[in-house]
Amino acid sequence: MDGSPIALVNARLSGVEQAPAPLGTYIIARHFILLEAEREEFGARVPVSLVAPPILQLPDEPPGFEWKVPPPSIEMLTYQVLPFFVCASQQESGEHIEALANLVWSGSTWSTHFPQQLAGLASVQTSEPLPAGAVVQLHSHARMKPFWSRTDNADEQGFLVYGVVGCIGTTAPRLLLRVGINGHWLPLRWNDVFRP
User: Fold this and answer.
1) Looking at the domain assignment, is residue 5 inside a domain?
2) Is residue 42 in a domain?
3) Would 4 be classed as within a structural domain?
4) pLDDT per position as a tens digit, 154-163
5) I need a surface site. Which of 50, 138, 141, 176 has the fewest CB within 10 A?
6) Any idea what the Cα angle at residue 42 is, between residues 51 and 112, rounded to 5°?
7) Are strands 110-113 and 32-38 parallel, antiparallel or unpaired?
8) Cis peptide upstream of residue 70 (ω within 30 degrees of 0)
9) Which tops the pLDDT comparison, 11 or 35?
10) Integer distance in angstroms from the first to the last C-alpha of the chain?
11) Residue 84 near residue 173 (C-beta atoms within 8 A)
12) Cα–Cα distance, 80 to 83 (Å, whole number)
C-alpha cells in the first residue's frame, strides 16, 4: 500500500463509470439516489431516496440485481428449506414458530445451512455467525402471511439476499424476497433469485 487512504464508500454521478467501493457507492441519478455494491456472487443497486424534482441533466440509472454465479435452484427452496420450515411450524405444543436457513455458495456449488436457533412465535435468533459464503438468508413466518416486520428490517442490515416464507402448512406457501445493502432494500421476484 502506498499510504493513500482507501475510500470505503464513495459517490458518483449517473453515467460515470466507477468501480464500487468496498462498502458501496452512492449514485446520483435523474430520479433516484442509489446505493451500489458488488460481492463475488452478485451485484446490486438499491434505491436510497427519490430525487425531487428530478435532475434532468443526469441520465436515469435503474435499481437492479444481477448474479455473477449460477443462481441457486428452486429445488433447494422446495425440497430442503421448506420441509425444515414445515417441521418448525408443526410443534407438538401446537405453536407455530419461525425458522431460519442460509443458502451458501462455496465457489462452485450451493448448499443449505441451518444454524442452531432459538425460535419463537414472532422471531428467530441464532448465536452462530453467518457462515462464510452465505448469500441468501431465509426465515419463515410459519402460518402467517409473509411480510417485512420491524424486526426483519432491524436485523437485515447486511449485504445479502433476504427472504421470508409464509403460509407454511397450507397448499400455497408464499415467498417475499429482497436484496439489502446496509439497511436499504430492493424487492425481487422469485425468478430473480432462483433458477427453475
Assistant:
1) no
2) yes
3) no
4) 989 999 999 9
5) 50
6) 125
7) unpaired
8) no
9) 35
10) 45
11) no
12) 6
SS3 readout for the chain: CCCCCCCCCEEEECCCCCCCCCCCEEEECCCEEEEEEECCCEEEEEEEEECCCCCCCCCCCCCEEEECCCCCEHHHHHHHHHHHHHHHHCCCCCCCCCCEEEEEECCCCEEEECCCCEECCCCEECCCCCCCCEEEEEEECCCCCCCCCHHHHHHCCCEEEEEEEECCCCCCCEEEEEEEECCEEEEECHHHHCEC
Asked which of 67, 83, 99 is the last residue of a domain, the reply is: 67
> In the block, which residue shows the cell 464513495?
10
- The confidence score (pLDDT) of residue 100 equals 92
Strand 159-166 and strand 134-140: pairing?
Answer: parallel
pLDDT tens column, 17-27: 887 777 789 99
d(CA 178, CA 188): 5
Q: Which one-letter amino acid corresponds to residue 97?
A: I
What's the rounded Cα separation, in Å, for the pair 180 and 177?
10
Asked whether residue 176 falls in the same domain as residue 140, the answer is yes
User: What is the model's pLDDT at position 6?
Assistant: 53
Domain that includes residue 55, residue range: 10-67
